[in-house]
Design a protein that fits this description.
352 residues; alpha+beta; Aminopeptidase; 2 domains; eight-stranded mixed sheet; seven-stranded mixed sheet; 15 strands; 37% helix; acyltransferase; cell shape
Amino acid sequence: MDRLPVKVKTLASGDAETAARWDGFVHACPQATFFHLSAWQGIIRDVFRHRTFFLYAERAGEIVAVLPLAEVKSRLFGHALTSLPFCVYGGIAADAECEADAAAALETEADALARRLGVQHLEYRNLEPRHHDWPRQELYVTFRKAILPEVEDNMLAIPRKQRAMVRKGIKNGLVGHVDGDVDRFFALYADNVLRHGTPALPKKFFRRLKESFGSACEVLTVADAAGKPLSSVLSFYFRDEVLPYYAGDDLAARDLAANDFKYWDLMRRACERGCKVFDYGRSKIGTGPWSFKKNWGFEPQPLSYEYRLYKRGDVPQNNPMNPKYRAFIALWKRLPVGVANAIGPHIVRNLG
């Protein structure tokens, strides 16, 4: 007997009932990630003012596949339809075997939408490849590793040199605190990204993340024995995973091993919370963060960022590794932090 056909629909703003069904599907679907949750629709629309198109496929009244998309239109960085800006993972979430027709229907609708909008390219930020013949971005990898059931076993699983750095942080009397707001985090984050020559995301974005995701969005700040904040990380919790996502450090953090202690303290807390996977997140190949994560014993896993090109001949390179941004980065590093925080959100909203 043939199955009923799928119908592709768009999640409407304010449709709480459908959003709840969408999130129920995401939590149950093995291919889905934290970044497929419906709350990203309002965050991207309200904070960054980008048009969103959260597509879903329905069969017999049940959601069987989802594809969150947003349009980013910029004179500086081009015109794109992406799943999903400001997120490291995206693309279609569906049962790979049972819902191939639903996934195909979503991709057909996304292609038609991209053509109607007149974008230069359509981007899927997949964990796993879907279209081996599409152009892809080879710059990024992710780092994921199992969290062992016992706290001490996780400590012993850290390679010796990196474990010594964690123990140095412990000996320095560092203490981790879970913050109820993003204030200490943002101060460290904004100063950190300025030193690296990149614009900071707006503080209201981080506030919105806390408001939207509640206990699934947590800020952990490490301070010295006197209470001075040294290092902070904003993490997401999804199913049995923890995802440290945004971070910042004071200049004094390096000598005190505060950054090393911070991630250990997060891993320890995640273990005690019952998490089974530590997702260290995306890094650019060959960079400092890439090396740091490898030092923890994590192995890089290539990300399958796939592109459908319409009005351009190659994959966009809107990232700090692009040589054409070197002068901008050098200039940005010299800005006062207050000026950078005021200007930065207007630039970074178009990067995604």
